[in-house]
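ok, trying the design again with the full structure, not the truncated one.
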C-alpha cells in the first residue's frame, strides 16, 4: 500500500486476519519546543486586562504535553526591570503549568519591553534558564501596544537566533512597528484583538505555534511525510536532513534538500521502527538552529513461508528495494574522487548521483546506468567537503537514496 489513498485489502494467514500493511495515520507526535511569554505586567495594564491575558495563556497551553522531551514554557514580566516568573524547566506537567500561571501576580512599573527582550536574548534562551538547543523557540508577546523603550534591535537579534515571534496586541498599537517586530509574514504572526475577544484567536495562534516545528504526518508502515516551517529559500541556503533508526545509530541516512522546500516524503522505511529525524538549515545569512522529532512507523507484515501466500502487488518498497545501503569514497584528488555503492540489484534501472559543496546551495546531477556501481566525480574544488547522494531508480518507479560526505585533497 503506497499511501492513504490505496485500496484496503486483507488476507487470512497463520497470524490471523490482517487488514492492510498498516492504515495510514495522520496523527502526529505532540509538539516539542520552548515557548516564552513576554507578559505586560506594567502599570499601563489594568488588573482586569492582566487577568484576562493570564486566562488566555492558560487556554492556549492547555492541550500541550509538557516535559523535557515535549513542550516547555516560561514567562518574563515586562516592567521597570524584567523579571522571570519561572524558567523553562521548572514545571514538567500541564497541571503544574496551569497552577503557576494562575498564581502569577502583576508587578506594575514601567513598560520597558526593550529591556525585557534584551534580557530574553542574553539570559533566557540558554541552558541556565532550562532552554534546549535543538528544539524550536517561540516568543509570544502579549501587549497593549505601548513601550517606553526601543524594541527593534533586541527583537531583531532574537529573530536572528531563530526565534519565531508572535505578537498579540490588545490595544491600538503601531501597526507598522508591530508588523516589523513580528516574524514574517505578519498576517500569520500578528493579531490585533480586544482583551475580551482573546478566545477568538486561541486556536489559530496555537495551530500557528505548532506549525513552527518539524513534524510528521501521513505515517504508514514504510513512510511518513515531514513538514516544517519556511526557514530558507532557494537563494539563502539548503537543508541537510538526517534520519536514523533510534536503536541503530550507525545507520544514519542523510539527504540534501532545497531551501524552498517545506515538506519531504520519506519512503522505504522499516515497519514498527522509531526514527530520530534532524533538519539542519544551512543558511548563507544567519544561524538557524536545527529542528528534531521522533517518528515511529506503523506495523507491517513480514512475508514468508509461515504466511503461505505470495507478496501482493503494491506492498511498500522496503521489502524488495534495498539499494544502496553502502557508499564508499575513494581515489580522492584535489579535483575529483570516486563514489562507489552497493548492492546493485537487477531491478535498478539507473542511479542518480547528486553532489554539491558544503556549505552551499548549488548541486550537480549525474546519471549512471543501473548496471554500474561506481563513478568518478570530476572538476571539483580542491580542499572542499561535498555532500554526495546516490539515488537508485527502480523499474517499479520507486526510489531509494543514501548520502555521504566526501573531501577533495588540499594540494595540487
Amino acid at each position: 500500500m503506497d499511501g492513504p489513498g490505496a485500496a484496503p485489502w486483507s488476507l487470512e494467514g497463520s497470524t490471523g486476519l490482517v487488514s492492510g500493511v498498516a492504515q495510514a495515520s495522520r496523527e502526529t507526535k505532540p509538539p516539542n519546543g520552548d515557548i516564552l511569554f513576554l507578559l505586560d505586567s506594567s502599570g499601563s495594564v489594568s488588573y482586569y486586562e492582566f487577568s484576562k491575558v493570564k486566562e488566555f495563556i492558560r487556554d492556549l497551553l492547555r492541550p500541550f504535553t509538557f516535559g523535557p522531551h515535549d513542550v516547555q514554557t516560561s514567562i518574563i514580566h515586562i516592567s521597570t526591570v524584567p523579571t522571570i516568573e519561572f524558567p523553562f524547566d521548572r514545571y514538567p506537567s500541564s497541571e503544574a503549568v496551569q497552577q503557576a500561571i494562575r498564581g502569577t501576580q502583576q508587578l506594575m512599573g514601567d513598560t520597558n519591553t526593550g529591556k525585557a527582550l534584551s534580557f530574553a536574548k542574553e539570559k533566557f534562551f540558554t541552558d541556565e534558564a532550562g532552554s534546549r538547543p535543538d528544539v524550536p523557540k517561540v516568543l509570544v508577546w502579549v501587549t497593549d501596544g505601548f513601550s517606553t523603550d526601543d524594541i527593534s534591535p533586541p527583537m531583531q537579534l532574537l529573530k536572528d537566533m531563530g526565534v519565531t515571534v508572535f505578537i498579540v496586541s490588545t490595544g491600538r498599537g503601531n501597526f507598522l512597528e508591530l508588523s516589523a517586530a513580528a516574524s514574517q509574514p505578519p498576517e500569520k504572526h500578528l493579531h490585533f484583538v480586544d482583551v475580551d475577544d482573546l478566545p477568538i484567536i486561541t486556536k489559530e495562534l496555537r495551530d500557528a505555534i505548532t506549525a513552527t516545528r518539524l513534524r510528521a504526518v501521513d505515517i504508514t508502515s514504510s513512510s511518513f511525510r515531514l513538514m516544517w516551517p519556511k526557514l530558507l529559500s532557494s537563494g539563502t541556503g539548503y537543508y541537510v536532513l538526517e534520519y536514523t533508526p533510534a536503536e541503530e545509530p550507525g545507520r544514519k541516512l542523510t539527504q540534501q534538500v532545497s531551501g524552498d522546500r517545506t515538506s519531504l516524503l520519506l519512503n522505504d522505511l522499516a515497519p514498527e521502527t522509531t526514527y530520530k529525524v534532524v533538519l539542519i538549515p544551512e543558511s548563507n545569512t544567519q544561524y538557524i538552529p536545527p529542528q528534531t522529532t521522533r517518528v515511529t512507523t506503523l506495523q507491517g507484515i513480514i512475508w514468508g513461508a509461515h504466511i503461505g501466500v505470495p507478496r501482493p502487488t503494491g506492498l511498500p518498497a522496503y521489502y524488495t528495494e534495498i539499494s544502496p545501503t553502502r557508499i564508499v569514497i575513494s581515489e580522492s584528488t584535489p579535483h575529483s574522487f570516486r563514489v562507489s555503492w552497493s548492492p546493485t540489484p537487477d531491478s535498478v534501472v539507473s542511479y542518480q548521483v547528486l553532489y554539491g559543496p558544503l556549505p552551499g546551495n548549488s548541486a550537480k546531477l549525474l546519471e549512471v546506468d543501473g548496471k554500474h556501481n561506481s563513478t568518478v566525480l570530476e572538476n571539483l574544488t580542491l580542499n572542499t567537503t561535498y555532500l554526495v547522494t546516490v539515488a537508485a531508480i527502480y523499474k517499479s518507479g520507486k526510489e531509494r537514496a543514501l548520502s555521504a560526505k566526501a573531501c577533495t585533497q588540499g594540494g595540487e
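Keeping the full-length input from now on. The helical segments are 47-61, 94-102, 113-124, 152-160, 175-181, 186-189, 202-210.
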